[in-house]
Specification:
With 115 residues, the chain is α/β, with parallel strands linked by helices. The protein is 37% helix and 21% strand. A four-stranded parallel sheet has the order 2-1-3-4, sandwiched between helices.
Length: 115
């Protein structure tokens, strides 16, 4: 059974992650992924290096307690080129698979799969 982490983020406290979470839950359900943990950063800019939920999720990835990470869009996860490089370096050695949920207008497709 795959151990899945969902990561959602919104930049302001006026926004909600409800739509992201609904779509990501549907994405996981469609793949039969049942062991899912949700990590949500509400009101935290993607440019911040430290984000509580992201930090917690990455600790689980590094400890190899997560097999798949699913995000609504890559910019919810990383915003800058520097953070993208850091995540990709971590991804290649610690996570087995990273998936991205596409918008509802396009079919969902996993991406960023690790070998």
């Amino acid at each position: 059974m795959k151990r899945v982490a969902l990561y959602c983020r919104v930049s302001t406290t006026d926004q909600t992650c409800d739509n992201q979470l609904r779509d990501l839950r549907d994405y996981c359900r469609a793949r039969g992924w049942e062991q899912v943990t949700e990590y949500v950063d509400q009101g935290i800019s993607g440019t911040r290096e430290r984000r509580p939920a992201l930090d917690g999720m990455m600790a689980e990835v590094k400890a190899r307690r997560v097999d798949v990470v699913v995000v609504a869009a890559f910019d919810r996860f990383v915003v800058t080129l520097m953070s993208s490089s850091s995540v990709c370096a971590s991804r290649s050695t610690r996570a087995r698979r990273w998936a991205r949920q596409c918008s509802r207008s396009s079919p969902p497709s996993p991406s960023l799969s690790a070998a």
